[in-house]
Amino acid sequence: MEQIDYLVVHCSDTPNGRETHAQDIHRWHLEQGWDGIGYHAVITLKGEVQWGRPRYWQGAHADPFNAKSLGICLIGRDEFTNAQMRALEGLLLSLKLDYPKANVVGHRDLNSHKTCPNFDVKTWWSGVEQKGID
User: Fold this and answer.
1) How far is it between the farthest Cα atoms of the chain?
2) Class of 6-133 in CATH
């Protein structure tokens, strides 16, 4: 993938508090007849970053933006742990080093029919960036 315009935050829409892993999502996506996990990274309840698709492989998470985006999935529906949010912050800060022009967005920012990840990623990210400036 040559150019990344978006770093897209998702949620797994699994019950809050139920531990789920990238391997589980991979299996679910295969069962749907897809080419495996559509996300590039998954963040578990404990804040562990688990890798899904390699960065060079186009994701399957935010059509029609897949060719120019990386997908990150938080496990849960609308309640995320402090460990998850710290891991998300660290992962995005790291990815921004490689893709400085990429916009950090939630899936809902790219598709008005979605609520995923059920929080305002743009506002949250603005606060993260502000911390870095202070």
Assistant:
1) 47
2) alpha beta
